């Protein structure tokens, strides 16, 4: 499987398996990055972004990871 760098977020590298469509969930508390299922993200209507040309769209979910909610990850200051 080939892996390519997509971007770095809060000091963590998000990697994407080539050819597998998915989005990402990033935990606000612990910084973990998880793959999530793919949702088609529509591009804005032509001309709605002025003179910009949109090459791609992405969807990143942010919130609290299950492990944080279950108390499996220490909270800052604990």
What are the defining features of this structure?
5% helix; single chain; mainly beta; Dna Ligase, domain 1; elongated; two-stranded antiparallel ribbon; 78 residues; three-stranded mixed sheet
Please give a quick description of this structure.
The protein has 78 residues and is mainly beta. The protein has one helix at 66-69, and strands at residues 3-9, 12-17, 23-27, 33-36, 60-63. The strands form 2 sheets. It has a 3-stranded mixed beta sheet, with no helix packed on it.
Describe the structure.
The protein starts with a strand and ends in a 9-residue tail after the last helix. By secondary structure, the chain is mainly β. The protein has one domain (3-69): Dna Ligase, domain 1 (2-Layer Sandwich). It is built from one helix and five strands. It has one helix at 66-69; strands at 3-9, 12-17, 23-27, 33-36, 60-63. It has a three-stranded mixed sheet, with no helix packed on it. The protein is 5% helix and 33% strand.
């Amino acid at each position: 499987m080939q892996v390519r760098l997509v971007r770095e977020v809060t000091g963590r590298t998000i990697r994407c398996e080539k050819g597998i469509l998915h989005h990402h969930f990033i935990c606000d508390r612990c910084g973990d990055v998880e793959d999530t299922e793919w949702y088609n993200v529509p591009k804005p209507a032509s001309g709605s972004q002025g003179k910009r040309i949109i090459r791609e769209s992405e969807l990143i979910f942010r919130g609290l990871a299950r492990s944080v909610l279950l108390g499996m990850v220490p909270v800052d200051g604990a």
